[in-house]
Structure formats: structure tokens, C-alpha cells
Write a structure and sequence with these properties.
alpha+beta; 4-stranded antiparallel β-sheet; two-stranded antiparallel sheet; 22% strand; Tail fiber domain-containing protein
């Protein structure tokens, strides 16, 4: 006795078992009216929960839902850069709203330290990453381009193998 029984009637009913009369019947509180027969049911076997305990737990759950529904609506619908605070299992938690997540950073850009460029346009991104102006130049063989390996503007450079050294060669080493 004292256990909670949930009867899958229409509507679902919850009772506390007062006594088990025999293998096919029991007495419940409050009294089932009309008497129930042939219904599916479940018995909560935890000693920690009673009808009153279940009612309190359900009441708390509904209260938290009611308190949070506005915050969840804000979370899902706002385009603003803001956070919301909700209660989850009795603990207050602050999370960013969808609008804040979409912006990725406090100014709309993910900081370089976080793997971004810290900028919202190409020029500022190149500056923040220290790329200089070579990042916007084409590869070519004329003034204003970045030199290709076969660019005639590169003179006096020897390949790693082959080629002829012209002029003097001075080698310095340890005395």
C-alpha cells in the first residue's frame, strides 16, 4: 500500500493504493467512481513518490514550463543579439538566443582568437589576419602583380640544382 497507480482510462487517473484485497482487486484513494475494471495501468514502485509527491512534481514541472515559455519563444523568434535565462531541472541557465547565435560574435564577426577574422568585410579581414596587399594581387610577370617562379623580374636566383655561377664567390666559415 502507499504506492501510486496510474490507470490508463479516459481520462487517465492517478490513485494511491490503500490495500491489495486479493490477486485481482485493490482499494485505492480517492475511491474510483465508477469502479474500474479491465484497464491498463502502471504502478510506480519507488517508495519516494506518492500521489501527493507526484502532484507536487507535476506542479513544479508545469510551473517551470509556464515560467520558461516566454523565454523559449524569445529564443526561437528574436533576431536580436541577446541571451535568455530559463530554468532547467530547478537550475537557472542563461543561453544565447537564435539571433545572438546567428551573429556568431558580439559585433557580428567571430574573433581571430576564436578562429574567425574579426571582421565583417574582406578588407578588414585581410588587415586583421596580417595578409598585406599581396592577398589581392594577381600572379603575373608585370608591375603590380605577385611574381611567379618563372618571372623575369627575378634575377640572380639559382635553382637548387644545376645552373652556372657567374661572378665571384666568397665563402665565410668559422676560423
Amino acid at each position: 500500500s502507499g504506492q501510486t497507480i496510474i490507470v490508463m482510462s479516459s481520462p487517465v487517473q492517478i490513485f494511491q493504493i490503500s490495500s491489495v484485497d486479493n490477486s485481482t482487486s485493490m482499494t485505492v484513494t480517492p475511491a474510483a467512481s465508477p469502479a474500474l475494471s479491465g484497464q491498463k495501468y502502471g504502478i510506480l514502485v519507488s517508495d519516494n513518490i506518492s500521489v501527493d509527491g507526484l502532484a507536487q512534481a507535476m506542479s513544479q514541472l508545469i510551473k517551470e514550463y509556464d515560467e520558461n515559455i516566454g523565454a523559449w519563444e524569445t529564443f526561437a523568434t528574436t533576431s536580436a543579439n541577446q541571451s535568455i535565462t530559463v530554468t532547467i531541472n530547478g537550475t537557472s541557465v542563461t543561453i544565447p538566443g537564435i539571433g545572438k547565435l546567428a551573429q556568431k560574435g558580439s559585433n557580428g564577426a567571430l574573433a581571430v582568437a576564436d578562429g574567425g577574422t574579426g571582421a565583417t568585410n574582406d578588407a578588414d579581414a585581410r588587415t586583421n589576419l596580417g595578409l598585406g596587399n599581396s592577398a589581392t594581387r594577381s600572379v603575373g610577370t608585370v608591375t603590380g602583380t605577385v611574381a611567379a617562379g618563372d618571372d623575369s623580374r627575378i634575377t640572380g636566383a639559382l635553382q637548387k640544382t644545376g645552373g652556372t655561377l657567374t661572378g665571384g664567390l666568397n665563402l665565410k666559415g668559422a676560423p
